[in-house]
Amino acid sequence: MKGSAGLDRLKLFSGTWEVKRRIIDRFNRSLVTFEGQAFVTPVQFEEHGDTRSGGVALRSSRTYRLDETDDSLVVRFPDLSEFIRIGEGVSQRLTHHCGQDLYRGRLFFRGVDAWAEMWHVRGPRKHYLSLAHYRRI
Question: In what order do the strands lie in the sheet with 126-136?
Fold first, then answer.
């Protein structure tokens, strides 16, 4: 059945999520936190919240386009270039090359009300570990 993996994943995770993220920035020797909400619809993932580092808070957001395929959910940047593909596994390894930067990630689906993502990023001007927790609101 065309699009069943992507469509099933979208149905399960559509809705509003609380997001908490910690980023250990090894390049700048700092800790960055993000707290906000994510909104998942059949075509989009959108996140809004506050990013804090060194006593400074900034309003932050990011948006991705979502497309289903025969065996995965494709997450795309706003320019429609591909970021990652999410399959059916409860634990998944992901890789994304962005210029000279390498993103190695893990997704952990804990059920329909909680999931987490972890990214280890290395590049000429980047070296950080990011861990985010999502809980359904």
Answer: 82-86, 73-76, 56-68, 44-53, 30-40, 15-25, 126-136, 114-123, 101-109, 91-98
pLDDT top residue among 61 and 7: 61
In terms of pTM, does the model score above 0.85? yes
pLDDT in tens, 79-89: 999 999 999 88
27: part of which helix (H) or strand (E)?
Answer: none
Euclidean distance between CA atoms 25 and 18, whole angstroms: 23
Return the residue matching tokens 């006593």: 55
- Which residue carries 């997001």 as its tokens? 19
Distance CA 110, CA 133 (A): 10
